[in-house]
Every structure is written in structure tokens, then in C-alpha cells.
Design a protein that fits this description.
alpha+beta, 2 domains
């Protein structure tokens, strides 16, 4: 449970990892070649930063090691769509997830996930008009932020400053 003070009020936020999700993670860890290598290194005494807990799950510095594949997407979707998070940006998702989970290039993958979501967002123009999806996708690329795209729209004359 995390307690945060915001503008004089206190918010309680709780993240629960369901047992079924933990079981999925443990099973997927057994199929991830990199994590299998980590497991071997732990068993041979070559790694002290990675541990195998009694339930068989692999942890890196007290954070569960996330295998590659669909399970990461599940975690990202839950972190972004959770009732507790209200569609946060990449930095907030990373700050929340890094407390419990670990994977190589985690921050980059979270940023890419958020950029893809932003590219799919419908943009309503001032005055009620909408930009078609094909126009939105041509405006966004992985190096631009949502705010940068609004500036591009202004330059194109689609919205007024």
C-alpha cells in the first residue's frame, strides 16, 4: 500500500498482485531464456543480486523478474487502465511498476507503450471537429510527445492557438 500526500489531502493507493497473475509470471519465467540463465547463475552462486524465492519465482533486488511476452503487456495495460491510476503517463507508470517489477529496458518499453496509446487517441479540435485516425498517426512518431503534436496541428492550421 502506498500513501501519498497531495495538496493537504491523503490518498491511499493499493496495488494487488493476484495469485493467478503470480502463477502466470512464474510459469513464463521458466520459458524465458534470459531468466533461465539468471536462475542457473543463482544456483551456481555467481549472482547475488538475483534470488529465487520459496515459491520458485525469480526476483532482482526484491522486484519480480518479468519475462518477455504477453505478460508484460498485461502488466502495462493494468498499470495504465487501473481504477487507481487514471491513465497516467510513462513516468508515473514506470515509478509505480519499478517498485514491484523488473525487466531489462523497462523504462524504454513503458515509454513506447504510452506513445502507442497516445497515437491512437482521438483528438477533438477546438470547435468540435475531429482529426481522422490516419491524420493522427501521420503526426505522431516515437520521438514526439503529445504536446509536440498539438504544436504541429497549430502549424498546419488545424487548430487555432
Amino acid at each position: 500500500m502506498m500513501i501519498r500526500r497531495v495538496s493537504g489531502s491523503v490518498q491511499l493507493m493499493a496495488f494487488q498482485i493476484q495469485l493467478t497473475l503470480m502463477e502466470e509470471i512464474r510459469e513464463a519465467q521458466k520459458e524465458d531464456l534470459r531468466l533461465l540463465k539468471f536462475t542457473e547463475q543463482v544456483e551456481e552462486g555467481l549472482r547475488s543480486d538475483v534470488r529465487i524465492y520459496t515459491d520458485g519465482a525469480l526476483y532482482f533486488r526484491n522486484r519480480i523478474c518479468m519475462p518477455q511476452g504477453e505478460i508484460r503487456q498485461k502488466i502495462l495495460t493494468e498499470a495504465h487502465s487501473s481504477a487507481y491510476s487514471i491513465h497516467p503517463g510513462g513516468t508515473k507508470i514506470y515509478q509505480d511498476l519499478k517498485q514491484h517489477f523488473w525487466w531489462n529496458v523497462m523504462k524504454r518499453e513503458i515509454a513506447q507503450y504510452v506513445v502507442k496509446l497516445l497515437a491512437k487517441m482521438p483528438i477533438t479540435l477546438f470547435g468540435g471537429g475531429k482529426i481522422e485516425d490516419r491524420e493522427v498517426n501521420s503526426l505522431f512518431d516515437s520521438k514526439e510527445s503529445y504536446n509536440g503534436s498539438i504544436i504541429l496541428l497549430q502549424e498546419r492550421g488545424d487548430i487555432q492557438a
